[in-house]
C-alpha cells in the first residue's frame, strides 16, 4: 500500500511500531513486562518521572483534604483594587488571584481537572485509534487501505488546527475540550498499532496459530494484539503530557472550559495574562505545575520506551 | 526523480479530496450551517433562508459539495464575515509574515540545535550532554504561549531591548512590495525598515523556535551517537583517516539525514502552528488571524485558512520526502 503524504513522518511512527515486543537476547524465559519493570526500577529517570506522576495523582485525588481553602471563595476580593492584587500573606502562602481567590487551593484543585482532561482525552484517543488500528492490522487488504487513507487525512491537518476545528464545532465545554484533544491523538495511535500488528502478524507464533486452525479473532486478540501493545503504551504515556499542554493552549485561545467552578491550570495561566505586569507569579505557578507534570509523564514515557524497546537495551 | 515527484503529486489527490470533504462537512455541522457562517452571528432566519436560496444550499448535499470543490479549486473560499473581503486575499496578505517568522525561528533552532546536539554527543555523559538533554525535555514541556509571554514581559516590557508586538514599528513609513517586510526593506533600500522588521522577529521567533530547537538537539545527539558506532566509522578510523575527515565526511553527513527530516517536518508545523506565539505578540500573520476568527466566530476564515494551511503542510511534507531522496541516494533505489 502506498499513500501520499509524509513518508518520513509515517516511517518514524512505523519504525517505532516495528520493534514492538521483541524479546531481547539472553533474556528468554523472562516476560517482557517483568524485565521492563526490572529495568524501570533501576532507571533514575523513570523513578523521577514516576514520583512526579504519583504525587500529581495523589494531590488530585486528595484535593479536598489538602487544599487549605475553598478554591472558589473570593475571600480577599475586598483588597483587590485597580492595578493592585494582594500578594502572599498569612493564610495565603501563594497569594490570591484578581478575584481574591486563594492561589494555592486553586492550584491543588486544578490538578484534578488537568488529570481528568489528560486521562479522558488520552483514553478516548487510544480507544478510537486502537479500534482503527486493530481493524487495519487484523484484516489488511482493502480494509487496511481504507482505514489508513482516512488516518492519513487526519494526519494531514496539523494537531492544533484540528483541535481548534473540533472545539469550535462542539462549543465551549469540558467534553468538547477532551474530544478535541483526543481527535488529534487518534491517527497516531491508529498508525502505531497497525504498524506494530503488521510486524507481529508474520512472526512464528502467529503463523503457528494460523496453521493450527485457531480462529482469527482469537489470534488477533489473544496473540498478536498483546504483543503489539508496547509502543502504544509508551505513546499513551507521552500523550498525557501533550494533552495537558494542549488543554492549556486551547484555554488560552478561549476554547477551554468556561465553567468557573472547576479551576484548571490552563485557564488559570490564560487568565493570569491580564495581570501579568502586576502579579507575574499568578502565571508562573500554574505554568510550573503544567511543566513539571508534563515533564513527569515525558520522563516516564521515555524510560518506558527504553525499557520496552530492545533497540535501547544495553 | 521526476517520475517519483509526479507520482507523489498524484497520490496527493485523494488526501486533498478527503481533506476538502472533511472541512465541507465541518462547516455543515456547525450550528446554523454555512449561512450563519457567512452572515455572522446576528443574521435573522429570513436572511439565512434568502442566503440558502441564492447560494444553492437548498440543493442536494452532493451537488453542494461539488460546487464547494469547484470553488475551492479556484481558491475561492468565500468572504470573511467580518471584513467582507475574500478569504484568499486575507490569507495571502498575512502569510508572508508567518513565513518570515517561521524562517527566523527555524534558523534560530537549526543554528543552535545542530551544534548543541553534536557537542552533547561528542561529550557524551558530560555536563554539556546532560544540560542539553534536560533543556530539550524542558523545551517540549513548556507551554509555548507562556514562554512567549515570559520573553515579551522580560525583554520587551521590562528591559525594553526588543519590540514586543506587531511586525514593524508604526513610526517607520515603509513601502511594502511583497508583504515580506524584511525583504521589502531590502528591495526598496529602506535599511532602517528592514532592520526594524527583523528586530520584530526576534522574540516571537525565539518563542516559536524553542520546540524545534529542543527536538533538533535531541535528534542530532541521538543520530551522532548512532553513527559513531557504525562499522564504516570504525573502518574509516582504522584505515588512518584524519579525525577531522572522519567527523566531517562520515559522522556529520550521515547523522544529518534524520535531522533534515525533523527540520522539514517542524517547518511544516510552524507554518501552521504559530497561532499561539503570533497571538501573544499580536504579530499580524496567519496565526493572529486564526485567533481573531475564533473569537469572532468567522467560520469562512477558519474553514479557508485551515484548508489552505493543511495543503501547505501536506506540500511541505512532500518536499521533505523529495529532498530526502536527493540527500540520500539509497531512498531513490527503494
Automatic annotation (TrEMBL), chain A:
The keyword Cell wall biogenesis/degradation does not apply. Keywords: Cell membrane, Membrane, Transmembrane, Transmembrane helix, Transport. It is a multi-pass membrane protein. PROSITE patterns: ABC_TM1. Its main location: membrane. Pfam families: BPD_transp_1 (PF00528), OppC_N (PF12911). GO terms for biological process: transmembrane transport. The keyword Glycoprotein does not apply. This is Peptide/nickel transport system permease protein.
UniProtKB/TrEMBL annotation, chain B:
Residues 95-320 form the ABC transmembrane type-1 domain. GO terms for cellular component: plasma membrane. CDD domains: TM_PBP2. It holds the Pfam family BPD_transp_1. It is found in: Cell membrane. InterPro entries: BPD_transp_1_N, MetI-like, MetI-like_sf. The chain crosses the membrane at residues 101-121, 133-155, 197-217, 255-281, 301-327. The keyword Transmembrane applies. It is a multi-pass membrane protein. The keyword 4Fe-4S does not apply. Keywords: Cell membrane, Membrane, Transmembrane, Transmembrane helix, Transport. GO terms for biological process: transmembrane transport. Belongs to the binding-protein-dependent transport system permease family. This is Peptide/nickel transport system permease protein.
